[in-house]
Design brief:
Blueprint (H helix, E strand, L loop, with lengths): L10 H16 L3 H17 L13 E3 L4 E9 L9 E8 L6 E3 L4 E9 L11 H4 L2 E7 L5 E8 L6 E3 L6 E2 L4 E5 L3 E7 L4 E2 L6 E2 L5 E4 L5
Antiparallel strand pairs: 1-14, 2-3, 2-13, 3-11, 4-10, 5-6, 5-9, 6-7, 7-11, 8-10, 12-14
Length: 215
Amino acid sequence: MPKIRFAPEGWLFIIPVIILTAAALLLTWWTAAIVFGMLAAFLFNFFRDPHRIGSERHVDILSPADGTVVQIKDVTDGEVWPGLTRQVSIFMSVFDVHVNRAPITGRIVHYKYNPGKKIAAFAEKSSTENEQNLVVIEDGNGGCIAFKQIAGLLARRIVFDKKEGDAVVRGERVGMIKFGSRVDIFFQPTAKINIKMREKVKVGLTIIGEIEERG
């Protein structure tokens, strides 16, 4: 049976709640113990980081987030790269895994952080106005994928463990978003999208698309 892993960012929240639960039990404050115990269970569930092994095909694009597909559209605003871009948005509820993973193997060629606002993550304008990280990865064969980590109304902090110039491997942990959030993925116009609206996807496991085969 695989060992259950938790995101290291979670212990700052989990340990104090465990201490409060233990103290309430020692003092026989049963109601408080139940409340703190339920909160601890929620935090353990939220910060879980399950081991997942996805496809190793070089053209496959793995989902960078758990959640539900809430938007699929074409955009031409040039924010990510010039010309047509295909965008898929994944809403992450507080019950989804919030660890983010690299969708392809390659190198981070662009990284930009925007402190932004705190709008509900399911709202379309959160994609442009909320606190967010934009990350662009090139695979070395002409393929490129970008994604945004977007904080939601309750999110406190976006975590990104990499920097511009770093190499990443498909499915590798690159960060997380705390307490409700959204991830937008941007495809080149020649890429194939394999998912549909309202579909549930799993980070590092679901194949959400394919990069155009080159060479």
